[in-house]
Amino acid sequence: MKRATSPPHGPMMNRNAPRLSFPTRMLRAFHPVPLLVVLLVSVFILPPYGPARAADGLQAEDGVLDLRDFDPETMGPARLDGAWEFYWDRLLTPQDLAANPAPSPSGLLSLPGTWRGMPVDGERLGGTGQATLRLRLRLWPEANTLTLRLFDIPMAYRLWANGQLVAMNGVVGTDADSETPLRSLVLATITPEGENLELVLQISNHHFRAGGVPEGLLLAPPGPLETERDRTWTFSYFFAGCLLITLLYHLFLFHLDRKQVSAGYFSGFCLCILCFCMTSNTSFWAIRRFLPPLPPQWSEYVPLFFYMACAPMLFRFYYSLYPKVFHPAVRHLVDLRFAIFLLLLPIAPDHRISEYIAFSILVGLGCAIYYVVRLCSCARRGMNGAGLLLLGSAASLLASLNDGLSHIKHINTPYLIEFGMLFLIVTQSLALAKRFSHAFASVGKLSGELERKNQSLLAEMEERNRLEQEVINISEEERRRISHELHDGLCQKLTGARLRASILSKRLAGTDDSTTMDSLAALLDASTDDAYRTSRGLWPVEHDPAMPGPSLDDLARRIAKDTGIDVRLEMRRHCGRCTNPNMRTLYRIAQEALTNAAKHAQAHTIRVRLRCPAQDGVILTVRDDGIGRTASARQGARTGGLGLGIMAHRAGVIHAKLTIEDAPQGGTIVTCAAPCDRHASPSSTRRTPPDASR
């Protein structure tokens, strides 16, 4: 495959930002990254990375390269560029070339380059086929042991030096079935005898769009080329480590908060970049030092797969951040580009796929330029993180252009794809970190505001509960006042009237008016009883001396007397004398529960139980053996029952828990658990024995 340029870029983050003046917005977008600018400049002026420049003016002519005046100490590795003898459609060995008569070359092929479009016998060659190349060198005097580098020749080849086979890659063949291509880095050791060196290179290409030697061959004494390879591997492992840490970090962020889709897409992009770089020529196939090589077909298309997958991931990363800045049509474009590649893999010949990859690289460069333009727009608007992302995208785009121009030999510079990708990853990570830090700061601010509002709401609820309790206390006092007024006023008058009616009834006995007087006396008796009953219902005259408020014992006795139902009361208290202010409210809840059971449950027995353990508050239970409630009746009671609503409200005022449920063996159970703010120690209290059941 052709050396891939940087993966295409995707759209930007989009969040509304304050409308600032243009200089202010740009400063806010760029001020956090002065060190990154220095790093960007240093990347492009860093000379040690990549192959050193060959001496100018040394070119092979007519298949001969004169290096007698070459000095590797000052001029670096020698490039074997220029015109090589070209034998088309023939796989010749050094013995074949030394035969008499020697075969005639088909022409001269300029390396680095391919034979596609080269005129031979009046016709232009296609990209596939097989050929033999030969170059004769005149070496410098100290050339005793040499290292020849063959890099990124995607075809199958064999190389002879002075008749000895010194390097081979894949299996050379005359058709696609017999050929096995393999892309790799080969450092061949050559020991020349004398100053003459003959190189014979067999190449077959039946899988890629153009056969030849796209990357120039380098020749140097032992040391420089090995050092360059080791330097490339070292940086590649450093690059892979940075990517792996970044990947895991953002993947963990996405795992913690699935709404942070930008972190998920960014981790996917890091994974694609990591796999692409470690399995491709950008790192000299560094992964092969630790893992066995893949089959030839897989080793070619695995890095291509990850390269093509970078674009959809990166687009979605940017789009998740700035959804309103970039056009959704670009997403369809990068997705279609990737989908076509997947469709071509199982059906298209390799050279067609190779042609599509070359086209995809151009599309990727166009997308990268589009993204940079859109990021400039985001930076002008002062959007959060846009400046950082613009720097990274611009650096990656420049690295891509540099590698593309260097690959086609328009410029002679080192490959910078990994530096560009590293810079892109760093700036994207910083942009995400900046956004997350702003988000965390906003969350902290909102949390503080929410805490203050919660405190205010809690204080308001406490004040409301205090007022409701005060209303209940006032209501109880009013009930007590009305009860006393009824008892001391109306009830006394009715009692006097009943007494006088009784006296008159006796005087008029045996007269015509005796019947009327007896009826009046009976009516006064009933009215007097009703008045006293109403007075006691509003505020019982009898109080439990061990409890605040009215007496449950009197309540149970009155309900039993008025309804004829067997009402049984059981009380167990931890304190000898209860001072819990909630007992008055519990009395009213018990009164309502007993009234409901007497009116609606058709009960024969009602059990009232009051328990006050040492640390569990006060628990009131009213249980009857009546007909119970169905689910529909229960739902209706909750939503529309006035008595149940009053009980629930009273329980809520004292922070009690009220439950109403059907008993397992029939009937209804009403339970109210209220807190108690005072628990006396056992040594200072006495346990009251249960009252006798009534």
UniProtKB/TrEMBL annotation:
Catalysed reactions listed for this entry: ATP + protein L-histidine = ADP + protein N-phospho-L-histidine
Enzyme class, UniProt record, top EC level: transferase
Coiled-coil ranges per UniProt: 450-478
GO molecular-function term, one example from the UniProt record: protein dimerization activity
Transmembrane spans: 235-256, 263-284, 304-322, 329-347, 353-373, 385-402, 414-433
EC id: 2.7.13.3
Name of the protein in its database record: histidine kinase
Organism whose genome encodes this protein: Nitratidesulfovibrio vulgaris (strain ATCC 29579 / DSM 644 / CCUG 34227 / NCIMB 8303 / VKM B-1760 / Hildenborough) (Desulfovibrio vulgaris)
